[in-house]
Each structure stands twice: as structure tokens, then as C-alpha cells.
Amino acid sequence: MSRAKNPGKPRQPKKLRVGIYGITGCAGCQLSIIFNEDDILDLLDLVDLQAFPFIKEVNADQHFDWVIVEGLVASEQDLATVKKLRRNAKYLVSLGACAATGCVPAYRQFTLKENYEHLLYRKQKRLKDVEPTPIDAHVKVDYYIPGCPPDKKEILGFFTAIARGIEPRGTDNPVCVECRKNGNACLLDQGKPCLGPITAGGCHAVCINGGLECWGCRGPTKDMNLNLMIDILRKKGFDDRFIRDRMRTFAGLKLPTLNRIFHGKG
Ligand code: SF4
Ligand code: SF4
Ligand code: SF4
């Protein structure tokens, strides 16, 4: 009869193999993961962090259960990385606004080249840029953690859910719901251009709590009424150019009808 090894020791459940990667972006989303020291330790308890090149020297590059990607596709290298990560992971998560909507780096789609030419890396010849696009323009995305940057607690909540085998869930409510729960006076009523009504919540209306209007960094809600939002802002006295530019700042690539409403570039 064979004897069980360590008969008194309960077997530890296998942790999920996770990779965290960044393509074109400012790394702020990845910093959101590591800046909360307590949470990063909790994270290491929850999952087997196989790859996180931003902070780890040795990284696996395949056989992930979940791979988390910050940034948008803005170069051929980004595209190759995203496709490879998709092949090597069961689930792929878009982390932050760049990955989900293209965010501020995608704004070059909406302006003339002479407006940003001076910002290009002239010596980085090996960078082959492509039209900026969110990750889901190229590969299937299984889950989105929105925001610029995403909320640290929301990131940890995501990892806690997947580690427990629970489907992670965001909210479909607009920012206004959390804003009103917080008892804020509405900034639209004060004549300020707040995009809360068309923006996905989950940030606890952090900007409005601090007296700043929502710029839409968590992306549009699924059932937004874009035309109504534009009408409201027009009635508040904002001109079309202002409204268009404000709406394009974080989510322009996800609002293609703006082109029709406001007649394209410029
Ligand atoms: S979403 Fe914001 S914080 Fe994250 S990489 Fe893009 S610009 Fe940086
Ligand atoms: S301040 Fe903005 S987010 Fe808050 S209720 Fe008004 S429109 Fe909505
Ligand atoms: S209030 Fe708007 S801009 Fe501010 S964090 Fe929330 S979604 Fe982003």
C-alpha cells in the first residue's frame, strides 16, 4: 500500500496563472496596481503572478489563465504583442481607458498632424506607428477594467473575484447615479460641462466629489443618449467644437457618430 505524502496537510488549490503587460500608454494603470502596497501583497496571495515585466525581471510569456493588458495599439509592435498574449491566455482583460477606448493617445485621430508632429520621437526609427485603436479592434476582450487610471480597489476586486471563481462585474449605471448618492450638487445645473450622464460609473464620482466635472474617462455607458447629452450642453451655451473636443478626449474612438454630428476633423 502506498502512503500519502504529508497526510495531515491540506492541498492548496492551484492559483490562477496571471500576466500583466503594458503596450502604448503612460504606465499609470500598472502603477495603480503596484502603488497600493497592501493590495499588491493581497494580489500575490490571490494569484500566481507569472509575468509583470514592469516590475519583474524574469517573466513567463505563455500559458496564462488571465492576461491583463494596459495601453492601446499604436505601433506594429503593440499589435504583435496583443495577438501573442491573446493566443497565450484563456482570458484577456483590457486595463484602463487607453486599452478600452484609445483614450488621450488616440486623439491624434481627430487633429491635424502639424498639431502633434513636434511630439513625435524622431530618433525612434524602429517604432512603426499604426492608426491608434483600442485592443478590442484586434482581439477578443473578455473583461474591461475602465478608467484613467483605474481605481485600485476595483482592480483588487477583479482579482479577488477571479481567484474565487466568481465572474467579475462592473456597473452599467452612469456616473450620475453615484454622484447623486454622494449628495453632490449637479455641476450641469451650475453651467459646467459634466459628461457624467453618458459615462460608465464605478469611480464613485471621484472628480465631482472634488468639484471637477466628469470628462468621461471610464468610457460611454452601453445605453447612453448621446444626442440628448449634446442638446443639454448646447442649451448650456457650449459650442459644437467645445462639445466635440471634450467628448473625444477620452472616448472619441468609441463615439464614431460624433463624426456625423459634428462633421469630422479639424
Ligand atoms: S488609461 Fe490613463 S493611466 Fe492608463 S495608460 Fe492610458 S493614459 Fe495612462
Ligand atoms: S454633476 Fe455630473 S455626474 Fe453629477 S449628477 Fe450632475 S451631470 Fe451627473
Ligand atoms: S468622474 Fe468621470 S472623469 Fe472622473 S474618474 Fe469618474 S469617469 Fe473618470
CATH arch. level architecture of the largest domain: 3-Layer(aba) Sandwich
Strand share of the residues?
Answer: 5-15%
Mean pLDDT value: 90
How far apart, in Å, are the first and last alpha carbons? Answer: 80 Å
Structural class determined from secondary elements = alpha/beta
**Helix percent band:** 25-40%
Name of the CATH homologous superfamily of the largest domain: NADH:ubiquinone oxidoreductase-like, 20kDa subunit
What's the level 1 CATH class of the largest domain? Alpha Beta
CATH fold category name of the largest domain: Rossmann fold
The number of helical elements comes to 10
Task: Supply Rg.
Answer: 21 Å
Q: How many domains, as an integer?
A: 2
> Which quaternary structure do these chains form?
single chain
Largest sheet report = 5 strands, parallel
Unreliable spans are none
Widest sheet: strand ordering = 2-1-3-5-7
Number of β-strand runs: 7
Bound compounds, please?
Answer: iron/sulfur cluster
Order of helices and strands: EHHEEEHEHEEHHHHHH
Report on this structure.
By secondary structure, the chain is an alpha/beta fold. It has 2 domains: 17-163, NADH:ubiquinone oxidoreductase-like, 20kDa subunit (Rossmann fold); 175-262, no CATH class. It has helices at residues 28-34, 37-46, 76-87, 96-101, 152-163, 175-181, 206-209, 226-235, 240-251, 257-262, and strands at 17-22, 48-51, 64-70, 73-75, 89-95, 129-133, 143-145. The chain has a 5-stranded parallel beta sheet with strand order 2-1-3-5-7, sandwiched between helices. α2 runs parallel beside α5 (152-163). The protein starts with 16 loop residues before the first strand and ends with a helix. Bound molecules: iron/sulfur cluster (SF4) (3 copies). One iron/sulfur cluster binds at residues 175, 199, 203, 205-208, 214-218. The site of one iron/sulfur cluster has 14 residues, from α6.
